[in-house]
């Protein structure tokens, strides 16, 4: 569960793939101090969610918490709104992670073939190929998940460079946005915050793990701490490696250009990017699993259209196939799934 939670947030992939936002809006100062601020804010969020998950280890997560804790007059409407927002958010998170992997792949082709210009439909085809491949994995090979996420947790990225001065990294605020410093920092802060997108993932898989009262609580808090330590070290190395800031802003994948600056080697930077792309595949895989379980839970609670299809488990694969791919209604291992009663 810790590995799964970190694979979803994955500080390396989040920082590397959205680097352009932070360096365009404040430079290294926004990135480094933004990571510290994000850690403080999301530690408070994770502690609150962990406390609730320890009491109510239910796959619906926040929308179940809302139903239980909100005033009786509003608990159904607030719970339903929270559930729909969560479902759409996880779907969007899956889409963003998948398109990032497509951008990484095509940026390699764009660099090695000077006359190649990726077109929108190229991104679309690669995006769908990755999406379908991981969907098939989650339908037919989900039992391999524990060791797959453990592998994803161990992948790391390194870089070697002619380092910039500490004064540049820690005190120079560079903005290409034209906005005041405060607005610029908040804009660039989206990069550090992105590394905690999907921090609630373990909540939605609570019903799939043993001893969820203890495990989910620890997984949430561990993810925040691991994310900070790995992201901060990674970001410091990247910021010391920036030699030409403006050139990074004119590329599809700035981290690829930065690694070429840092290493002076196209081969080394390509290896790093492929390693990062593999990390993103783990992210997409984990997001698909979590999103499908959340949508399955909403269907189980009759919260969506075609709930009789979406809210069922496949009888032999034991995965929420209806939430990932429409299928005929089934029973979960021969028993009716329990309905969540917001009035309890």
Automatic annotation (TrEMBL):
The chain crosses the membrane at residues 31-56, 77-101, 121-140, 147-166, 178-199, 220-243, 263-284. It is a multi-pass membrane protein. One of its GO terms (cellular component) is membrane. The keyword Nucleotidyltransferase does not apply. It is found in: Membrane. Keywords: Membrane, Transmembrane, Transmembrane helix, Transport. GO terms for molecular function: transmembrane transporter activity. InterPro entries: AA/rel_permease1. Pfam families: AA_permease_2. It comes from the Eukaryota. This is Amino acid permease/ SLC12A domain-containing protein. It comes from Hortaea werneckii EXF-2000.
